Amino acid sequence: MVLKPEITTENYNQLNFALKDFSNHWALLRTERYMACEQLATCVYDKTKNHKTQDYSVDVCESNNFKYNVSRAKLLTFFNDLERIELQRLEE
């Protein structure tokens, strides 16, 4: 790796840990969003398919839509946090 000769072993290990943590968190957010999207799509499909046989006076997909929006907000927050870190790094 290019950085290895320029940083201490401790800093290299910290960087390695941070990158693994980033990758794990990103994968978790993607999985969460995928699951929320799949649940919402399934609910909307079922609602559309069964609209004549069931009373949908209350939106049965509301909680799934909320989960989807929360998962989307988490991704956007994560991107914003990364952008702030990058801006702080550039200012130093």
- Approximately how much helix is present in the residues? over 70%
Radius of gyration: 21 Å
Poorly predicted ranges: none
Number of domains: 1
Q: How many DSSP E strands?
A: 0
What is the residue-averaged pLDDT? Answer: 85
Determine the N-to-C terminus distance.
Answer: 24 Å
Q: Write the H/E string, N to C.
A: HH
Q: Which outline best applies? A: elongated
Q: Structural class, please?
A: mainly alpha
What is the quaternary state of this protein? single chain
By DSSP (H or I, 4+ residues per run), the number of helices equals 2
Q: How much of the sequence is in beta strands?
A: under 5%
Largest sheet: none
Describe this structure in words.
The chain has 92 residues and is an all-alpha fold. It has one domain (26-91). It is built from 2 helices and no strands. The longest helix has 41 residues, at 9-49. The model has no long low-confidence stretch (mean pLDDT 85).
